[in-house]
Amino acid sequence: MLGSIQILMDVETAEAVDTLRTDIRRVEKTLTGSIGGVESSLTGRIDSVERSLTGRIDSVERSLTARIDGVERSLTARIDSVETSLTARIESVESSLTAKVEHVEVSLTAKMEEQKRHADVHFESVHGDIRMLAEHLVSLTVKVDSLLGQ
Question: How far apart are CA 46 and CA 52, in angstroms?
Answer without folding.
Answer: 10
